[in-house]
């Protein structure tokens, strides 16, 4: 008791010292602590009780009150609680690009009456948008896009009389567009100061109200694309004279295009495609600001193509395909600014003049004039093959550096860890994505902004441009490189992310409006130490806090140890793996290297109760969920279905195998769960999906020839590691395109070791085992003999190579890819006569160098007898030589559910790819769907 009486006064004294030394209002500190106590991955310098005095990253203060919470791109995880209302002086709240922040937005956010900017772009928030946001009368910037918000657009947003930027796009909002009514209820028509309505990619229904628009509005960007809106285009739209970009594409609009839209003298881009509009093609004569017009896929008609299509002085792109336009297209006196006119699938009968082709791209395929004799040879009558652009910022008069793992060579040839993300344009005023000048202008504008904001940026790089077929937006990968160091500190990342999330960066007109999706950054270094004025206070506070923490921890240490001991004993009783000894050879315990044991409750929490919204894969084995660990790390949680579970011994063996392999081209195992009748494996999260999805176009990632070579090399290196560097060697047994994943830089990672086998007896060279694998990739010799060898993986890999070259599934409509290649292949002809079977997308601009050698190597891999196939090490060397032939360094960084079959009747084995039967069902009586 005497000791307790001495400690209590000491604690009181220490807390008094803390209060005197602190520069932060105690209520604000308490509120911030309550708000963030459950958050993971907070900034490293959040130490002590004085955010304002200690210069905490992302915190800005005025008169001891926290006024700004700017934490974009920190990989934070947790929820936004009602404690946010405690920060009563907050004027800026930015939590963008933290996908681990989930749950609903609390109604209490409406108590932040001084809030001017609220940005939650690209998080994981869901549920309805709180009505209380409508009470934030000083709000000028509201960006809630790229979340999972549902419900309707709150009417109360009509009370935000000072709002300039309103972005609710890329959510799951439904219902009608709210406008004010005679009952005094507010609506979006009252937002007279707003310049941006971004509502695309939701599920909005009903008509576009005439009352939504009026002449007092200052709208510039009006985006309601990719919804389910019906009815006509309001005539009142023409009263908003400030409009520059209008998007109503991908809806179900009907009726005609209002003639009075020609009054919109500032309109630059208009998108009305993929609707059910009819009537006459509108007359846009005199709209000299127009640069981009897309009215395709409607039922618009015209007896002749109006002159404005070719003569408007600023027009670059006119897309009018799939309508009912007829008559003559007059090309005399066309504008020099034109880059593309697309009039495919109409009723045009004549081109005037016929023999004087324009210097812009003209598309007239599937018109009557192209069905005339000899017209099919005209360039404008041919259906163009999609030609996605490829661009990557070139080096600035230097040789790219050979960088270490995860580092990237900057345009100034310095190895560093860049801050990355997607820069996305929601409107396209240019059609030629291959024009390098656009990218250079964009790069320069970014660098100018960073310099003007005094951000230590060495250079920026743009790459991987493509048109997202889901959203119709134009996307670019942006890498920002640090100056005079190899990585950004927290302050650097926060500053760059905030500049992009809050639209402080203003791009060139052709790229506006835009938004940014930041990736997580894991390479923080060189954390700032704060100013001299705060360092002394920081030392005092830190010392006092250390004493307090020590006393408190000492008090709880005994209780904690006792609790842990009890928990460990219970865990041992419930979980047969709890007594595994790591890194030993004794008993039956596996040799685990880095794999963690997760409880069922942990994984349920990390995956938001295994919610459907977190599902990223499924099959007969069960489902795969995206999860977020307390550290902020994204993981993939593979949860076995009850009918697909292995025995405890087999599951233990698989975990042991996975924990032993560590290679940059293999998907890493983070941990496992074997509890409450569940079997779950936790893998590192790979963001760009499967190779199969990319080859099929499902993922939206364009795979050119160079990328395919690098993916082939990465997968080969991963397999070579399993065969030759793992001890004992490992045979994967299920190599296929759905088991090759692509990371952020499109590097290949071999995944799913559920069918893998250890080659314990390397002298014998094979494992006699039940036949398992995926039809189309399965080694015929293994199938016939049940003797599994490393060359069985080589065969599957050879099929994968042919899939890379053709973008065809191994078995399509009863045709087996290996036999189809053999059928048409002729080595005496150009490209071995493979033109009819190769994927057209790799045949675009230039001849794919090394393709013949690539195909020949693939055919060696799929030799019927294993002895005739190369080893994976030999395959790696040959692909490296092909990449060198292309002129690249093979060591530089690159930027449909299959069924798995088990042979139930080994005595009746037949060749799995016999000529007369390629159907799945007749070959393997029992099937088991494996994950992709």
From TrEMBL:
PROSITE patterns: LRR, PROTEIN_KINASE_ATP, PROTEIN_KINASE_DOM, PROTEIN_KINASE_ST. GO terms for molecular function: ATP binding; protein serine/threonine kinase activity. Pfam families: LRR_1, LRR_8, Pkinase. Residues 893-906 have a biased composition (Low complexity). Residues 893-932 are annotated as: Disordered. It is a single-pass type I membrane protein. Its main location: membrane. Keywords: ATP-binding, Glycoprotein, Kinase, Leucine-rich repeat, Membrane, Nucleotide-binding, Receptor, Repeat, Serine/threonine-protein kinase, Signal, Transferase, Transmembrane, Transmembrane helix. It is found in: Membrane. Its EC number is 2.7.11.1. This is non-specific serine/threonine protein kinase. It comes from Glycine soja (Wild soybean).
């Amino acid at each position: 008791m005497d000791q307790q009486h001495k400690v209590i006064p000491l604690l009181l004294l220490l807390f008094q010292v803390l209060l005197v030394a602190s520069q932060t209002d105690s209520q604000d500190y308490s509120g911030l602590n309550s708000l963030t106590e459950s958050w993971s991955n907070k900034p490293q310098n959040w130490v002590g009780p004085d955010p304002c005095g200690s210069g905490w990253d992302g915190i800005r203060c005025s008169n001891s009150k926290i006024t700004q919470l700017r934490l974009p791109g920190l990989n934070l995880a947790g929820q936004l609680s009602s404690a946010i209302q405690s920060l009563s002086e907050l004027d800026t709240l930015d939590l963008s690009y933290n996908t681990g922040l989930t749950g609903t937005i609390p109604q209490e956010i409406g108590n932040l009456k001084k809030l001017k900017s609220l940005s939650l772009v690209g998080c994981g928030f869901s549920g309805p948008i709180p009505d209380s946001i409508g009470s934030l009368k000083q709000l000028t910037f509201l960006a809630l896009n790229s979340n999972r918000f549902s419900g309707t657009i709150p009417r109360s947003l009509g009370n935000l009389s000072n709002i300039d930027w309103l972005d609710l796009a890329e959510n799951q909002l439904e219902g009608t567009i709210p406008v004010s009514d005679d009952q005094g209820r507010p609506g979006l028509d009252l937002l007279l100061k707003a310049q941006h309505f971004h509502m695309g990619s939701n599920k909005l229904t009903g008509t576009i109200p005439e009352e939504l628009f009026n002449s007092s509005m200052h709208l510039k960007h009006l985006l309601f694309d990719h919804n389910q809106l019906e009815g006509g285009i309001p005539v009142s739209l023409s009263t908003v004279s400030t409009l520059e970009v209008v998007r109503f594409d991908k809806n179900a609009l009907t009726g005609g295009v209002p003639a009075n839209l020609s009054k919109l003298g500032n309109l630059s881009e208009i998108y009305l495609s993929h609707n059910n509009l009819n009537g006459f093609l509108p007359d846009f004569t005199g709209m000299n600001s127009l640069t981009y017009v897309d009215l395709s896929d409607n039922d618009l008609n015209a007896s002749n193509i109006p002159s404005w299509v070719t003569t408007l002085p600023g027009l670059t792109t006119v897309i009018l395909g799939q309508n009912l336009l007829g008559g003559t297209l007059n090309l005399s006196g066309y504008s020099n600014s034109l880059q593309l006119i697309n009039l495919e699938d109409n009723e045009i009968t004549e081109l005037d003049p016929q023999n004087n082709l324009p210097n812009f791209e003209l598309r007239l395929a599937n018109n009557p004039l192209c069905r005339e004799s000899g017209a099919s040879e005209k360039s404008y009558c041919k259906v163009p093959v999609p030609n996605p652009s490829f661009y990557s910022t070139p080096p600035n008069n230097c040789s790219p550096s050979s960088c270490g793992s995860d580092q990237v060579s900057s345009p100034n040839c310095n190895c560093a860890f860049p801050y990355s993300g997607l820069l996305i344009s929601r409107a396209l005023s240019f059609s030629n994505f291959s024009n390098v000048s656009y990218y250079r202008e964009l790069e320069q504008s970014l660098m100018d902004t960073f310099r003007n904001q005094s951000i230590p940026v060495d250079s920026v790089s743009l790459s991987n441009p493509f048109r997202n077929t889901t959203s119709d937006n134009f996307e670019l990968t942006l890498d920002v490189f640090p100056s005079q160091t190899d990585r950004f500190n927290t302050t650097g990342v926060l500053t760059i992310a905030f500049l992009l999330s809050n639209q402080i960066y203003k791009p060139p007109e052709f790229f506006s409006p835009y938004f940014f999706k930041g990736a997580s950054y894991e390479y923080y270094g060189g954390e700032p130490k704060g100013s001299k004025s705060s360092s002394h206070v920081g030392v005092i506070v830190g010392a006092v806090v250390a004493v307090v923490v020590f006393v408190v921890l000492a008090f709880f240490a005994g209780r904690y140890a006792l609790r842990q001991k009890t928990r460990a004993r219970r865990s041992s009783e419930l979980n047969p793996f709890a007594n595994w000894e790591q890194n030993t050879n004794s008993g039956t315990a596996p040799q685990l290297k880095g794999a963690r044991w997760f409880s069922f409750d942990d994984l349920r929490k990390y995956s938001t109760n295994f919610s459907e919204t977190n599902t990223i894969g499924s099959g007969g084995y069960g489902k795969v969920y995206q999860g977020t660990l307390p550290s902020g790390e994204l993981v993939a949680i593979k949860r076995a279905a009850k009918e697909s579970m292995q025995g405890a011994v087999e599951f233990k063996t698989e975990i042991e195998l996975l924990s032993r392999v560590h290679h940059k081209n293999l998907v890493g195992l983070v941990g496992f769960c074997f509890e409450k009748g569940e079997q779950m494996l936790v893998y590192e999260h790979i963001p760009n999906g499967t190779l199969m999805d990319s080859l099929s176009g499902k993922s939206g990632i364009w795979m050119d020839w160079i990328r395919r070579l690098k993916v082939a090399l990465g997968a080969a290196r991963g397999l070579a590691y399993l065969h030759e560097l793992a001890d004992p060697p490992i045979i994967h047994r299920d190599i296929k395109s759905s088991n090759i994943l692509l990371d952020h830089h499109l590097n290949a990672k071999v995944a799913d070791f559920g069918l893998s086998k250890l080659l314990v007896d390397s002298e014998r060279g094979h494992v006699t085992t039940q036949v398992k694998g995926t039809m189309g990739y399965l080694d015929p010799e293994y199938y016939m003999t049940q003797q599994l060898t490393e060359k069985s993986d080589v065969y599957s890999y050879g099929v994968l190579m042919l899939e890379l070259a053709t973008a065809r599934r191994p078995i399509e409509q009863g045709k087996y890819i290996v036999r189809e290649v053999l059928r048409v292949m002729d080595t005496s002809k150009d490209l071995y006569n493979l033109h009819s079977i190769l994927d057209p997308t790799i045949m675009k601009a230039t001849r794919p160098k090394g393709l013949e050698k690539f195909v020949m190597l693939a055919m060696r891999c799929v030799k019927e007898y294993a002895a005739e196939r190369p080893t994976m090490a030999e395959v790696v060397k040959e692909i490296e030589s092909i990449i060198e032939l292309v002129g690249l360094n093979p060591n530089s960084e690159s930027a449909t559910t299959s069924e798995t079959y088990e042979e139930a009747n080994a005595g009746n084995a037949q060749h799995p790819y016999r000529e007369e039967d390629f159907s799945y069902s007749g070959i393997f009586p029992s099937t088991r769907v494996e994950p992709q």
